[in-house]
Amino acid sequence: MSSIDSKLRAFGELVRQGTIVPQPEWAPGRLKVGVDLGTANLVLSVVDAENNPVAGTSWRSTVVRDGIVVDYIGAVHAVRRMKEELEERLGQPLLRAATAIPPGVHPSNAKAIGHVVESADFELAEIVDEPTAAARLLGVQNGAVVDVGGGTTGISVLRDGEVVATFDEPTGGTHMTLVLAGARKISFEDAEAEKLNHGLERDVFSIIRPVADKMGRIVADFLADYPYVDTIHVVGGACSFKDFAAVLVSHTGRRVIKPVEPLLVTPLGIAMYDDGGQA
Ligand SMILES: Nc1ncnc2c1ncn2[C@@H]1O[C@H](COP(=O)(O)OP(=O)(O)OP(=O)(O)O)[C@@H](O)[C@H]1O
Ligand SMILES: [Mg+2]
């Protein structure tokens, strides 16, 4: 297993078990924090100065949609409570945080995301774009990172470590759930539960496959201008299906790598952009 995969696996355990990696008391305020305000999930990630995972929490929420804050008070309240939860677990205050937006979000909406973080009593370290944060965690120098989240498919192209292009299209896991709900004539909530039921994965995937195909076409169309991209790193919850990577391969003709814990790549990457207030 690569060191990145083991880092992700460790972070997954911290989030699921609600545990922490104990930190020395002499270093208050040195922890780095990332706030990922996703369409489906809000995630707070904490890493140490060497970017090793320390703690994290993930809440399902619909206060933000595709990088747009649709419930400002709800978003602030949720981030505050998540911050308090981690501070309590760590026995240390969390002072600063970086956050992220999907590529192409209008500057005024990006500002609103920043305001949520500040209103939750964080000093705002930086606002990065989501697939770029994922690329940093994955250490991608050359290639593309595709983040298929709840609301959008985001793409970052990297060449020699530099982000040379980003793109975002509103197709994500939510659209998969809507297609499933329509096909099965059930509510969105029931369809979401069915989608997440591992035992039903094969049947569910055959129904939502057109959405995966659409994501594949979005990525293939965008990457047509970047023939030198030979590897795609796919992250985000919507790529959780076992056969998702194969669909991307079939549309793009490029190599596709899916890390472990694909939902946690972008959140953990965002924390790396907080300089920890060490300046
Ligand atoms: N095991 C799974 N199988 C299928 N879909 C899954 C699975 N786990 C999560 N998802 C889906 O992934 C989506 C959430 O992914 P993620 O947390 O990456 O999105 P987000 O960051 O909240 O959204 P966005 O980045 O688009 O704003 C949801 O639609 C959820 O249903
Ligand atoms: Mg996301």
From TrEMBL:
GO BP annotations, alphabetical order: cell division
Highest taxon of the lineage: Bacteria
The species this protein was found in: Aliirhizobium cellulosilyticum
One Pfam family recorded for the sequence: MreB_Mbl
InterPro entries: ATPase_NBD, EutJ, FtsA/MreB, MreB_MamK-like, SHS2_FtsA
Gene3D superfamilies for the chain: 3.30.420.40
Protein name: Ethanolamine utilization protein EutJ
SHS2 domain location: 32-138
